[in-house]
Design a protein that fits this description.
56% helix; 11% strand; alpha+beta; 7-stranded antiparallel β-sheet
Length: 443
């Protein structure tokens, strides 16, 4: 395949896990082709590295397909899970989407109530037109609330999707969200509670629309704190929640080891705010429409992946972290800080199932550092080491098991007392640690 075509169809594959998280399964190249084994057209993704098959999914009407925005195709496989392809380029997404529709039959796809691609049926071109949004003024807020909520009140799925796309298009074309934020500032300055309640309703509804485009507009660095401000004025809550004040004054970020990429700090702050919206501000998922989590969770996975990528590339950060962890001259309080930081990084890798981050950590001395931490005289450092080992075992037992087996094979050249399994055994003898007991049983 020519390089240009490969890049166009380059995708990240995501699956929706049982714990309601989008999991990054890796990057590859996608095509729609006939698969003899399935006796059907299928979506086939081959891994970017070795060309192995990452995904082979039969194209069938039993799998509801959605094209969300410009670069995302999502579908459900009832026998397994929800899957998503995130394309590097829109042209690749359009090509694969058209192939899926051709395989299913164009009219059958429309009848299924999925998103309508205007390249499929020209007669639908006139349907996706922006709605008429009123001028962004205080006197029009009640009307705006009705307009943005209208697509969620339509029972017919196809009509609902058309109205949603029309709403999103209008908001984007008219740069409407910054205008709403200006109204928010005006209402706060005037103490206009009715206007603030209406703005809360508008932005709360934007999340229910489940649109990646809307989320990107709301999550702009210059706007996200104001969006959080709008969500503070919940008319159904007796007391206003001061989320912005908490984020600015209470949720403090400490840079234990300076990052070379200063933009990484901004990415971490931004990610924290998006996760805060999801976990603290928004109601529990059961109160939302069924698909709400897909767009928001996928956005969070994207932001986390960006942070992970920057971390993996920060050679100085990784070197400093593991050098100081293994340095006997590092004082106790600093050691505890570093151990806590390493645990947070491992938790982060676990949250998006990032095998690549674990590999980078291991290359920089993760396992040797854990041995050093387990032999520390500081109880908290030992506790963090045990927690990290448990996180690794839960993610992939081979991360720990392969290292222990490798040490066994190389034991003739090692000080036996410094082998990980013996260190763990010594800890079990010296003190009963439920985490270590569980881990040894798994190993």
């Amino acid at each position: 395949m020519p390089q240009m075509a490969q890049n166009r169809r380059r995708v990240k594959v995501y699956s929706y896990s049982e714990d309601l998280q989008w999991v990054d399964k890796g990057t590859g190249y996608v095509m729609c082709s006939y698969v003899d084994r399935l006796m059907s057209m299928a979506i086939v993704v081959r891994a970017e590295g070795d060309g192995s098959i990452m995904l082979e999914s039969k194209i069938t009407p039993d799998h509801p397909y959605q094209k969300q925005e410009d670069t995302l195709i999502v579908w459900t496989e009832p026998e397994s899970c929800d899957l998503a392809l995130s394309f590097q380029q829109q042209t690749g997404c359009d090509e694969v989407w058209n192939k899926i529709c051709e395989s299913l039959g164009q009219y059958a796809q429309i009848d299924m109530g999925q998103d309508i691609d205007d390249t499929i049926m020209e007669e639908f071109d006139s349907i996706i037109t922006p709605v008429d949004l009123p001028p962004c003024e205080l006197s029009k807020l009640e009307e705006i609330v009705k307009i943005v909520k209208a697509p969620l009140l339509i029972p017919l799925q196809r009509a609902s999707r058309i109205q949603r796309e029309s709403l999103i298009l209008a908001i984007k074309q008219e740069d409407y969200i910054p205008k709403l934020i200006e109204l928010f500032h005006m209402c706060e300055d005037l103490g206009n509670l009715e206007g603030l309640y209406q703005l809360h309703e508008i932005f709360r509804t934007f999340f229910s629309v489940n649109s990646d485009t809307l989320l990107r507009m709301m999550f702009q660095t210059s706007l996200i704190m104001d969006v959080i401000g709008c969500l503070e004025y919940n008319p159904s809550s007796k007391n206003r929640q001061h989320h912005r004040e908490y984020i600015r004054s209470k949720a403090l970020f400490k840079e234990v080891i300076p990052f070379q990429d200063k933009e990484l700090v901004n990415k971490i702050h931004h990610l924290y705010r998006v996760v805060y919206i999801q976990e603290v501000i928004l109601p529990t998922p059961s109160l939302f429409e069924e698909n709400l989590l897909s767009a928001l969770n996928l956005s969070i996975v994207y932001y986390k992946s960006e942070v992970v990528k920057s971390l993996q590339e920060d050679e100085n950060f990784m070197t400093q972290l593991f050098t100081q962890l293994c340095d006997e001259a590092t004082d106790e309080s600093r050691l505890v800080e570093l151990a806590r930081l390493l645990k947070e990084i491992c938790n982060f890798a676990q949250s998006i199932k990032s095998r690549e981050l674990y590999q980078v950590l291991k290359q920089h001395g993760l396992m040797a550092s854990l041995e050093s931490m387990l032999m520390s005289e500081v109880a908290m450092v030992i506790s963090y080491a045990v927690d990290i080992l448990m996180i690794m075992v839960e993610f992939d037992i081979a991360l720990v098991k392969d290292y222990i087996i490798q040490q066994q094979h190389q034991s003739s050249g090692l000080d036996d007392d410094n082998q990980l399994l013996l260190i763990i055994t010594d800890q079990l003898v010296d003190s009963i640690n439920s985490g270590l007991v569980t881990m040894v049983m798994l190993l």
